[in-house]
Amino acid sequence: MKHIVWDWNGTLLDDCTLVVAATNASLAAAGGGPVTIEEYQRGFSRPVDGYYGSVLGRVLTADEFAHLDRTFHTTYAGGLATCALAPGALDVLASAGGSQSLLSMWFHDQLVPTIDNYGLTRYFQRVDGLRATIGGGSKAPHLAEHIAALGLRGDECVLIGDSIDDAIAAASVGADCVLYSGGFTDQERLRAVGVPVASTLPDALALIGVPAR
């Protein structure tokens, strides 16, 4: 069985409502109007500064994006306690067997204690988040570093995530990918990528040959 690399936000953590609220706080700080969850799921992409620019109708300077990014993370941190794990998350982690790790584009120093607070640390061989001060880029180079740190090749891994960028990152290292449609991306957009798409986390495991308990 292949090593599973789990995504966090929008996959194991059901935080889409909070992410959209934080996005809208950032847009408001730049003089823009709000987006709905459905609009976010249809339009979000990386790099994140490009997404903000498309919604605002202009190219952001580096300083503007840095301000929006700080606004996003301040708002997000303030609402994190309201978020629950995605339906079935604990069950799939317990039943997956084999080896598992977690890679997120959220800040590493906030991610690690949060994973521990949810009681999930024991399931993962390794947990990696973003170690930069400003995020928004592709997951691809971070995935390459993550699997290298585990001593694995890309073709020994499968990434389970919820975004088009997850599929792009997996392809960049030769890993398999299953996308979960309960997160940040519209299901039709996910299906257009050409990798398996699951509507539940147990279904995602089933697609890689692991039956749900």
How is this structure best described in words?
The chain has 213 residues and is of the alpha/beta class. It has two domains: 3-14 and 85-207, HAD superfamily/HAD-like (Rossmann fold, 3-Layer(aba) Sandwich); 16-81, DNA polymerase, domain 1 (Orthogonal Bundle), CATH 1.10.150. It has helices at residues 16-29, 37-43, 48-56, 62-79, 89-95, 108-117, 140-149, 164-173, 187-191, 201-207; strands spanning 3-6, 13-14, 84-85, 100-107, 127-130, 157-161, 176-180, 197-198. It has a six-stranded parallel sheet with strand order 5-4-1-6-7-8. It has a two-stranded antiparallel sheet with strand order 2-3. Strand 7 (176-180), helix 9 and strand 8 (197-198) form a beta-alpha-beta unit. Helix 7 packs across helix 8 (164-173). The longest helix has 18 residues, at 62-79. It starts with a strand and ends in a 6-residue tail after the last helix.
| CATH homology superfamily of the largest domain | HAD superfamily/HAD-like
Beta-strand residue fraction: 15-25%
Global Rg: 16 Å
Which word captures the global form?
globular
Can you list the strand order of the major beta sheet?
5-4-1-6-7-8
Counting helices, strands and paired strands, the structural category is alpha/beta
Helix content: 40-55%
User: Which CATH top level class of the largest domain fits?
Assistant: Alpha Beta
End-to-end CA span: 17 Å
Mean pLDDT: 93
- As an assembly, this protein is single chain
Unreliable spans are none
In the CATH hierarchy, what is the architecture of the largest domain at level 2? 3-Layer(aba) Sandwich
Main sheet attributes: strand count, strand direction, barrel closure: 6 strands, parallel
Q: Compute the number of structural domains.
A: 2
CATH topology of the largest domain: Rossmann fold
- How many β strands by DSSP? 8
- Count of helical stretches: 10
Instruction: Please trace the helix and strand order, writing H or E for each element.
Output: EEHHHHEHEHEHEHEHEH
